[in-house]
């Protein structure tokens, strides 16, 4: 490493001995700082995620697969290659009208053992659309981490949920033929952007693209190229479906994105599964469930821990009789106060998750985005008092047991204490579903209406094509 300007200034006007001492001092300080960095990187998943995220946001590094795609793309299309890691994945697809039409669901990757929330919803909608159109479903996975062998395994695992589904991995896209009448379903901005590039290149019609918007994703990356590209996908002319009324209102009122209310569906909350969960045997212990995901900045992990520390201090000796459980992602157990520990149980499977909800008295689940999020609503449906952060007026009134308060550690912590007092005094509520249509219409109704609109548009287009030209 060459000398910096600071090094030159430090050596000016000093004896060689003093210069050497200064240099040794800097080396020692650098070694200490490096040791601290490595220790924090190893011990803290949230710090590790922040460092990795910062590295990813800075630039997109070419891979052999990306270079192959760039060679096939036209020069005017190639300029997109640094905007997302899969920008050119669909830019050179092969069209074949003789190939049976399909519904193409585009995902980054898919883990069949963890089909939660967003991915599960996308799969349900894709299956419903493919079934409604009477065609096969094809899943396209854009992550280069998904090998052909893993793709075949995923295809086998999904047969019961989506009979006849096929899976195409990134490297096999170039060898796959697509019918111009295919429908495409984009699920995240990193999948919508490659479709947008293919649309700009004339490979795909925007009328044939359904964009499943399940959160305000430009906010996930701060002010950056990814944020800007994510925002631009909303203006690509796709058929947008929005997950939840709060998100729809935010997009309409704050961002100016005009989506018909008929395209808004309610989150696919596990209401029936919660209703069927056996009632937990109650005892005198109050249980607090914290949705702790340190690697996901939008879930405000450190703010939640600070709120629980404040609550533990306010509770004093009472806190030692309260069980603090963190679930969602593994992290080291954390001391909230003397003798009070937030115990991490990591990622839970479905049965463990619903069993935890049945035993939860108070939930603390945060999210710095307008989508209402599943855990706080599902905890409230299960009968717990669920505390979350208000986000620009999108959370208030969603459920009688959902308390949306200011995103401040003391305000959140005070809400936890109030909830504990209420549970201690009047007991835990039972199963409490959300009000009908408060979060949006049923997904099946929205998909049915969308299919009818698409069929009508296609019929009109076919009739126009058959008319003789003047």
Would you write up a description of this structure?
The longest helix is centred in the N-terminal third of the chain and has 28 residues, at 16-43. A hairpin with a 2-residue loop joins strand 12 (334-337) and strand 13 (340-346). Helix 2 (16-43) packs across helix 3 (45-58) and helix 12 (301-315) packs across helix 15 (409-426). This protein has 470 residues and is of the alpha/beta class. Helices cover 43% and strands 16% of the residues. It folds into 2 domains: 68-265, Rossmann fold; 271-426, Rossmann fold (3-Layer(aba) Sandwich), CATH 3.40.50. The strands form 3 sheets. It has a 7-stranded parallel β-sheet. The protein is built from 16 helices and 16 strands.
Give a quick precis of the structure:
This protein is an alpha/beta fold. The protein has 16 helices and 16 strands. The longest helix is centred in the N-terminal third of the chain and has 28 residues, at 16-43.
Q: Categorize the overall geometry.
A: elongated
- CATH class categorisation of the largest domain: Alpha Beta
N- to C-terminal separation? 74 Å
Q: What is the averaged pLDDT score?
A: 87
What's the architecture of the largest domain in CATH terms? 3-Layer(aba) Sandwich
Tell me the major beta sheet.
7 strands, parallel
Q: Over the alpha carbons, how many angstroms does the gyration radius reach?
A: 26 Å
Tally of domains = 2
Q: Find the CATH topology of the largest domain.
A: Rossmann fold
- Class computed from helices, strands and strand pairing: alpha/beta
Alpha plus pi helix count: 16
């Amino acid at each position: 490493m060459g000398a910096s300007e600071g090094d030159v200034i430090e050596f000016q006007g000093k004896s060689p001995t003093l210069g050497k001492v200064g240099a040794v001092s800097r080396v020692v300080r650098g070694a200490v700082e490096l040791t601290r960095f490595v220790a924090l990187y190893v011990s803290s998943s949230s710090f590790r995620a922040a460092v990795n995220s910062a590295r990813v946001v800075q630039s997109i590094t070419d891979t052999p697969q990306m270079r192959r795609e760039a060679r096939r793309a036209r020069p005017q299309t190639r300029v997109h290659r640094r905007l997302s890691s899969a920008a050119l994945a669909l830019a050179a697809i092969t069209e074949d009208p003789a190939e049976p039409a399909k519904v193409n669901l585009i995902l980054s990757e898919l883990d069949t053992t963890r089909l939660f929330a967003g991915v599960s919803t996308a799969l349900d909608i894709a299956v419903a659309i493919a079934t409604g159109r009477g065609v096969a479903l094809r899943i396209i996975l854009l992550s280069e981490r998904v090998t052909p062998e893993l793709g075949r395994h995923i295809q086998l695992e999904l047969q019961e949920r989506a009979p006849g589904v096929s899976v195409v991995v990134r490297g096999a896209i170039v060898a796959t033929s697509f019918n111009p009448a295919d429908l495409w379903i984009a699920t995240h901005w990193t999948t919508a952007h490659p479709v947008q590039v293919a649309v700009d290149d004339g490979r795909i019609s925007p009328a044939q693209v359904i964009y499943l918007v399940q959160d305000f994703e430009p906010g996930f990356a701060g002010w950056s190229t990814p944020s800007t590209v994510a925002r631009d996908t909303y203006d690509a002319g796709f058929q947008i479906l929005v997950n939840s009324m709060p998100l729809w209102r935010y997009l309409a009122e704050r961002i100016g994105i005009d989506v018909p209310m008929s395209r808004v569906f309610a989150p696919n909350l596990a209401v029936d599964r919660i209703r069927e969960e056996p009632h937990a045997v109650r005892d005198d212990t109050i249980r607090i469930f914290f949705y702790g995901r340190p690697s996901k900045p939008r879930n405000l992990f450190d703010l939640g821990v600070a709120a629980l520390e404040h609550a533990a201090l306010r509770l004093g000796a009472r806190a030692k009789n309260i069980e603090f459980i963190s679930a969602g992602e593994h992290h080291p157990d954390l001391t909230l106060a003397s003798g009070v520990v937030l115990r991490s149980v990591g990622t839970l499977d479905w049965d463990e998750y619903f069993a935890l909800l049945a035993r939860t008295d108070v939930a603390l689940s945060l999210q710095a985005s307008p989508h209402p999020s599943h855990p706080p609503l599902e905890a409230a449906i299960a009968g717990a008092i669920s505390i979350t952060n208000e986000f620009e007026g999108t959370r208030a009134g969603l459920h009688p047991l959902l308390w949306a308060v200011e995103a401040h550690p003391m305000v959140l912590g005070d809400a936890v204490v109030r909830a504990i007092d209420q549970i201690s005094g009047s007991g835990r509520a039972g199963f409490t579903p959300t009000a009908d249509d408060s979060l949006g219409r049923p997904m099946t109704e929205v998909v049915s209406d969308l299919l009818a609109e698409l069929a009508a548009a296609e019929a009109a287009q076919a009739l126009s094509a058959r008319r003789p030209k003047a």
